[in-house]
Amino acid sequence: MKAESLLRALRILLWASAAAGIFIAFAWPFVVSNDPASPALRWIGTVVAATFLVALALAAAVTALRGEHRQP
Amino acid sequence: MQGPSHLALSWFLADASGLERPRERRIVAWAGFAPDIDVLAYLGAIVWYRGDKDLAFENVWKVTHHVYTHNAGFVIAVGAVAWWLARGDPRSRLRVAGLAVLACALHNFLDLVGAGPTWPIYPLLPISGFEWIVPWSWTIGEWPNVVVLVACLAGTLAYARAAARSPLECFGDRADRWLVTIVRQGSVHSSGRSRWVIWAAVLLAAMAILAPLGFNPFR
Question: With an 8 Å Cβ cutoff, is B132 touching chain A?
Answer without folding.
Answer: yes
